[in-house]
Amino acid sequence: xxxxxxxxxxxxxxxxxxxxxxxxxxxxxxxxxxxxxxxxxxxxxxxxxxxxxxxxxxxxxxxxxxxxxxxxxxxxxxxxxxxxxxxxxxxxxxxxxxxxxxxxxxxxxxxxxxxxxxxxxxxxxxxxxxxxxxxxxxxxxxxxxxxxxxxxxxxxxxxxxxxxxxxxxxxxxxxxxxxxxxxxxxxxxxxxxxxxxxxxxxxxxxxxxxxxxxxxxxxxxxxxxxxxxxxxxxxxxxxxxxxxxxxxxxxxxxxxxxxxxxxxxxxxxxxxxxxxxxxxxxxxxxxxxxxxxxxxxxxxxxxxxxxxxxxxxxxxxxxxxxxxxxxxxxxxxxxxxxxxxxxxxxxxxxxxxxxxxxxxxxxxxxxxxxxxxxxxxxxxxxxxxxxxxxxxxxxxxxxxxx
Length: 402
Description:
69% of the residues lie in helices and 0% in strands. By secondary structure, it is mainly α. It folds into 2 domains: 35-176, no CATH class; 183-246 and 254-388, Methane Monooxygenase Hydroxylase, Chain G, domain 1, CATH 1.20.58. The longest helix is centred in the first third of the chain and has 28 residues, at 79-106. The model is unreliable at 1-16 and 380-402 (pLDDT under 50).
């Protein structure tokens, strides 16, 4: 029989209400979500636009509802995006009004003139994506003016004025009310890409040791995860760059994004060659009709090279890396090169072994910082060490040179 625990204060144990404390981090995360800030700014801009619109003098005061619409259409998460969207909205509105007046000059609103305005508006939006933003903005503006205003110039003028007022208010709110800087997200994505690449390299070594089957789904899963992570890092960095343009907060949060772009370009090289290694290893662990299996003597030094390069990627930044870790990876690569030369088959001298070794070399060269002036580069250092590298049998674990 199951034991029943007392929930009274006098009992030996008290009932814990699960989930109460764990919800607090979720609430904080939700309150910091960018979309919540965007919705608040859209609501604020629309409310201010309405207050301003009903106070406008002249004919514009008859159409106050277009000002909140203009503010809503202009709001975008970044300041630069809001400026671009606002200008495109005003350009599309102007073109649409001109189309409507041309259609009204031809005749009263009917199926033909409406079809002309809508068709021409969609066509122009496709041609003028940078100017008018694409979509249905031109056609919508033309349709409103043609059907509601017809030849009434006052409607068109009031519509245009209120929309422009709304766009300007949206731009002001976007620029002044906590304009977001998405720098932390970009830095986090870069770190995730680096650790994912390091983990992928370690997984490749495990695959070689465990002899994964060619059709093992983990091959495709690892490649897809790495490619998706790289794409997300690029998108986050570009978005961070856009969020700084026109943002008054950038002065208080300075960051040199050039270094981040330098880092992601290196990681792109790492990603490309890591996926290439994964493809080659997937075919060559057991061999295929077109690709011979890796030599048994080549596997152990290759496993150690994968582990050493994984350690380098785990510690790597653009300008800093542990010297001992880097030297260990370089020596592991020298042993790979030596064993590759020994075990290369005469009938397939440029097989998977050569491709894998070259990709590993490219990865290590990409993450190796430039040497100080007068110091040998990675390739020269490798040639120097190769002459003094001790002979190591396949079963030995070499001691690193001091």
